[in-house]
Every structure is written in C-alpha cells, then in structure tokens.
Write a structure and sequence with these properties.
Helices cover 37% and strands 21% of the residues. It is elongated, with a radius of gyration of 38 Å.
Length: 578
C-alpha cells in the first residue's frame, strides 16, 4: 500500500505529530523567553558581573621618576625607558607554547639565562597568571623577544635609573632598587618628591587585549618633581679626582672632601673614596656606598685650634697681641705631659697656629672656663646636625659632663676627646670665612641666600683668618697647601685613631681652610683616613689635594687671583706681636 493511501486511511496521524512538534517548539521558545526575562529583568547583575570579570581592566600610565641635576643643569640622575619580560603560565600551556623549544632557547640566549630555568618558571604552576622572567631589558632586546612570538610571553614598560656622573657622585646621589624606589642618598631622602603618582583608569578590553571603551577615572595622577642640587658637577669631578689620587698615592683606607660656598652654605662638592659604579649593580659593597663625608666621624686634631683662639678672644682671657710663654716646649698637666716638636719660647697667637703648638693652645684652653670652649665648638656646629637633611648624617659627639680634668681640657684644645664629620669641619671654616655667621648647610640649590646666625664676632673671625695665613707660607706646617694668587686661611690636623683602651698606630690626615682670605668664597675640608707609609701628616697628605681642589674650584668660579705684591702685603700684614 502506498504512503499516500496510508495517510488517507489515518487522517488523524498528521495533526497529532504537528501538534507535538509545534508544542515542543512553543515550549522551547517560552523557556528561552522566560530565561532571558529572568536574566535581564529579575537577576541581571550576575551576567554583568561575569562580563565585567572578562572585559573590565584598570590601566595606569607610567610616570617617569624626576630628574636630579646639578646647579648648572647637568644631569646627575635620569630615568631611561626599558621593558620587563613576563609570562602567563596558563596562557602558555593553553597555547602549547613549549612545543617549539628553539624559540625558548633563543629567548634564554638573549636573556642570558639557562633555558631549563626559564621553562621551569613557566611550567611549574600552570594555573598561575603572572611571573617575571627578566626585569629592565633594553628596547633592542625587547624588540627581539617580540619577534620570537612565544605564546604566553609578554612585555611591559618600566624605567631604569641611569647616573651620568657614575662613581664621581655615587654616594651622594645614591641609587634606586629594581622597582625604581630610592634606597640610598638623594634618591632615598627625596624619594617621595621624585616619585610621581600614575593616573588609573577603568577600561573595557577585547579578547585580544585592545581597549574598546574607556570608562571612569579611578585615580588622578601627579607628575614627578625634579631636583636641582647645589652641587657643581665641575667641582665635584675635580674633588673626586684629586681625592682618589691622594688615597691611592698614600694607600689610604678611605677619604672625603667637602666644598662649601662661604656666602650661602651650599655644598658645591661632596666626594668619597672608595666609590662604586651606580650603573652596575653587580657585587655592590656596603662600605663603598656609605657617604663618609657625613656619616663617619673622627677626632679633628689640630684643625680646631683656630677656634680655641677665637674662644679665648671672645672670652677676653687673651688679647690679640699677647705673647704666650711655651718654654721649655713641654708642660705637665695633671701628671701627664703635653709637648711641642720644638721649644718655641714666647709665642704670639699667630705663631701658635702657624707652628701648631700644643703647649700654647693648651694654655689658652686652660685660661677660660671649659664651658666657654665647648660652647664655641657647639655654636660652630660641632655636636649638632648641619641642616643638610640627608639620611645617615652623624652629629658627632661632644661629651656633656660637669667635671673635666685639666688634661682633658687641654686635649679638647688640640682636637681629642670629641668627634666630628668632614662636613662639620668644612662648615666650621665656612663660618670663619663668613665673618662668624653660621649658615645651615644645603644640598639643594638656593634661590636666595639664607638667614644665618652670628655665632662669632666679625672682628674675631677676621683676626683669626689673618693669623692662619702663615700656615701655608714658608715656615708653616702646610706649605704644600699654598696657592699662588689665592691666600689661604687653613690648618693642618693629624690625629691618631682611637682603639679599645687607648690609641693605635693608624692616623687620620686632615686639612681644612678658606680662600681667598681677602674675599672668602670657598671652604674645603680634606680627610684622608689611615694613610700608609712614612708620610701621614695632614700637611703632606691632605694639603696638596686641598690646594689642587681649591685652586681649580676658584678658577671655575671666576674668582680673580691677586698679584704677588698684594699677596706679600697680605702675608706681612700685622696680626699680633711676635
């Protein structure tokens, strides 16, 4: 029987099947409509949440760290663009990125890492979504990695700090860590100022990572700030070169130089040896990174004798033209002996400084109350912070006690029994050169001269300056610090280093001074720690470095020298009776 005949015999068969199909379709349609209505009307948040989880991202723009420049605009620290190589292990596994090991070998070669180490980082946790492979790679390396097209390997922008001055100003400028956060020096002290805040924006991204819609601003960013230091890079380079030459020549353990502008208190140079290259982070040693000019202390020795004379003149216990008897060249104080290298007889104040007489300066110290001497030291900045506001600065140490023996008072006068930093020593001489005005020390370039404090009478300061001229002239203890055309008011110092139970065989050689005497402009302290060999006196070791730094710096600042005739007249000017 044909199919058509069967249909004619069972006419109800077709409508029943049709009703079933139509009913099923209607039920499916109603279910879809109900489900869509439920999702979109009754519970739409869940779907939106799922969508947002896949597409919404928060992006931030990169803010470069601020520049650090010297007072003339020369770069001391600048950020350069680099890239970070990172991996998405889950994505790498999903794309079977490990099938072509030749690409991984090429990646390992350019990153200078073992290929097994790289692969292990990515394979170790296949569910992880982020792992660094290498930080701060150069743009050229980054371009090469992009061309490898390894699944799950990505690049992101970051910056790296570069220091054009290298080791010359390494301890002062400091360094940042791999995350561009300052950890030493200026970079650390002014980290907040140098670091900007990136702006953050919520965006919608497509599956391939492209931004298809920009939404809300999550956080408004702030630009980073630049810093202009008081440092003069020319003088800094000169100071470091001469300091390094001196420490190498005398095989010293370390050395420091500080150059201060007498008129403003600005630091024009601060150098230390040994130093390090801040652009190479391999094998960094902590002792090379320390800014010894403001962290390390020492007993200043005879460099403080001019301030004992100043204290005595201020106290009125001695007159400028008075003679001090020092025969027979030694004296017993409290059962102990203080002696000079020769018997100089009756000495003027000027001659006491020129010959660096311990006997003469001890008598001056004993002629005044101990608090007068200590007060002068403290008023000149000893035992106090300088105002430079750099991390790690030491205030030095001056004991504050009620009773002092006569011998202790004597040792205070020639620089023992208390400690100072090279920065403090330079500041003391800058105060002498400014006519007794103490300025706060600044490592930042000042827009206008600061307000200073008169801590020493101008007449006394000028008188002591004149007395010091003979130190670098013939017959003085520092003829190697003499500079033709620039008269120096300076003083040598040679102090033995303290050890447990007394003093050892190591010395600290010092020279500090101001120039030119007739128009003071710069104050410099040079400290050479533990020189080896036969020469260890301040005049022999630190004096020549002082002369070269001071002479070169004054010429760089266009300070006009005086003629030989004027220099002779200045050197022979009456200071006090001989």
């Amino acid at each position: 029987m044909s199919r058509q005949a069967k249909r004619k015999q069972n006419p109800e068969l077709i409508p029943w099947r049709l009703y079933v199909v139509v009913g099923f379709v209607m039920l499916l349609f109603v279910s879809l409509v109900a489900r869509a209505a439920y999702i979109q009307i009754i519970e739409p948040d869940k779907l939106r949440h799922e969508s947002d989880m896949r597409t919404l991202r928060t992006t931030s723009n990169q803010v470069q760290r601020g520049l650090i420049t010297d007072r003339n605009g020369d770069m001391l620290a600048v950020s350069v663009p680099v890239r970070a190589v990172w991996a998405d292990p889950k994505h790498a596994h999903d794309q079977n990125a490990f099938e072509d090991m030749r690409r991984w070998q090429a990646l390992a070669d350019v990153l200078q890492e073992p290929v097994e180490k790289l692969v292990k980082k990515v394979k170790h946790n296949p569910k992880k979504r982020f792992v660094y492979l290498k930080r701060q790679v150069t743009p050229a390396v980054a371009d090469y990695i992009e061309q490898l097209k390894i699944g799950g390997i990505y690049l992101k922008s970051e910056s790296r700090r570069y220091y054009p001055a290298g080791e010359i100003a390494a301890q002062l400028i400091g360094i940042t860590n791999i995350d561009d956060v300052g950890i030493e020096g200026i970079e650390n002290t002014y980290n907040t100022w140098l670091t900007g805040t990136p702006s953050k924006q919520k965006v919608r991204k497509s599956r391939d990572g492209r931004v298809v819609e920009r939404l809300d601003i999550v956080q408004e960013g702030e630009n980073s700030n630049d810093i202009v230091l008081s440092i003069d890079q020319r003088i800094q380079q000169l100071a470091y070169r001469e300091l390094k030459r001196a420490t190498e020549m005398y095989q010293a353990t370390s050395g420091s130089v500080v150059v201060i502008d007498v008129l403003t208190g600005e630091v024009l140079a601060m150098a230390n040896t040994p130093s390090y290259n801040p652009n190479s982070r391999e094998n960094l040693q902590s002792h090379r990174m320390r800014n010894r000019a403001l962290t390390d202390t020492f007993e200043p020795g005879s460099t403080v004798k001019p301030f004992v004379v100043a204290a005595a003149l201020e106290a009125g216990t001695v007159k400028a033209d008075e003679l001090i008897p020092t025969s027979p060249g030694w004296m017993r104080i409290g059962g102990r002996q203080v002696r000079d290298s020769n018997n100089y007889g009756d000495m003027s104040l000027s001659k006491i400084l020129v010959k660096s007489s311990n006997v003469g300066i001890s008598k001056l110290a004993l002629s005044m109350p101990v608090q007068q001497l200590l007060g002068t030291y403290q008023s000149m900045g000893l035992g106090n912070y300088s105002g430079i506001n750099l991390t790690g600065e030491s205030a030095g140490l001056i004991h504050d006690r009620r009773r002092w023996s006569d011998f202790e008072r004597a040792t205070l006068s020639f620089g023992y029994g208390f400690t100072a930093t090279p920065l403090q020593l330079a500041r003391m001489y800058a105060t002498l050169g400014s006519g007794g005005v103490l300025y706060p020390v600044s490592i930042l370039k000042l827009k206008e001269p600061p307000a200073g404090q008169q801590v020493l009478s101008q007449d006394v300061a000028k008188s002591v300056m004149q007395m010091l001229v003979g130190v670098t002239e013939r017959g003085g203890t520092a003829t190697k610090a003499h500079i033709d055309g620039y008269p120096i008011a300076g003083k040598t110092g040679t102090s033995r280093k303290a050890i447990a139970g007394g003093y050892g065989d190591d010395y600290v050689a010092l020279f500090a001074g101001v120039a030119p005497v007739h128009n003071p402009r710069l104050a410099i302290s040079v400290v050479i720690n533990e020189p080896k060999g036969d020469k260890y006196y301040g005049g022999d070791v630190a004096g020549p470095a002082f002369a070269k730094i001071m002479s070169g710096a004054l010429q760089m600042l266009n300070v006009e020298p005086i003629s030989k005739r004027e220099a002779v007249q200045l050197a022979s000017a009456p200071r006090s009776a001989e």
